[in-house]
Amino acid sequence: MGVFSSLEGMKALLASYGPLSGLVFFAIQMLSVIFAPIPSNVTMLAGALVIGFWPAVLLGVGAVALGSVIVFCVVRKLGHDFVARHVSGSVMEKYLPVIREKQGMFLFLTMLFPFFPDDAVCMLAGLTDMPFSRFLLCVLLGRPWGLIFAAALGSNTLQLPVWCYVCGAVVLILIFFFSMKYAEEIEKRLFTMVMKILRHFRRNQSRE
């Protein structure tokens, strides 16, 4: 796990496989969804450094989408007991009722915003009656953006002045610090914000 959490370690690992580095990158990205401790943004950034922006985007996003689908289908097959062994009770109690009620829109927003437990949410979605096509659409629309941004940083596709990279680095450090120290509080506030968005969306639909 130390290799997967280190950018330099990931870069060295992928580069050591030479022509097979893309295949190894795909496998690691897919496993980052199935085994949540692997940070997919770090692996995405390292993949872009080794194999380039577009290969990393195509392989990385495809792998994350496939991993999400695998988790969803496995849960549909194995049910509640399987999820209970992999997702904490507090997360299940908090998210499962909302996913059952709001379904696609809530799932999309939790995948779009950072700090939400995306992989756990994919598992919980498998316990609902959400159609597979709707789940897949949420994954394809919500999950790629953070991965694409990480790939753009890793491949230097974003051509910005030096001061922008310095500011970006400071922001990333601050995000890391606050996510480590205040992750629960940030998630709680984002959860409240998403619920307000959903209520506003529902009110507009009822008026129409």
Account of the protein in words:
With 208 residues, the chain is mainly alpha-helical. It has one domain (7-207). It is 80% helix and 0% strand. It has 11 helices and no strands. Helix 2 (21-34) runs antiparallel to helix 3 and helix 7 packs antiparallel against helix 11. The chain starts with 6 loop residues before the first helix and ends with a helix.
Précis, in short:
About 80% of the residues lie in helices and about 0% in strands.
Please describe the structure with a list of short key phrases separated by commas or semicolons:
mainly alpha, 208 residues, 80% helix, 11 helices
Question: How are the SSEs placed, and which strands pair?
Answer:
Elements: H1 7-15, H2 21-34, H3 40-51, H4 53-78, H5 80-86, H6 89-102, H7 104-112, H8 118-125, H9 132-142, H10 144-154, H11 162-207
How many separate domains make up the residues?
Answer: 1
Cα end-to-end separation: 51 Å
Secondary structure tally, helices: 11
Classification by helices and strands: mainly alpha
Tell me, rounded to a whole number, the average pLDDT. 83
Overall 3D shape:
globular
Strand content: under 5%
Strand tally is 0
Largest sheet: none
Over the alpha carbons, how many angstroms does the gyration radius reach?
Answer: 18 Å
Helix residue percentage? over 70%
Identify low-pLDDT runs. none
SSE string, helix = H, strand = E? HHHHHHHHHHH
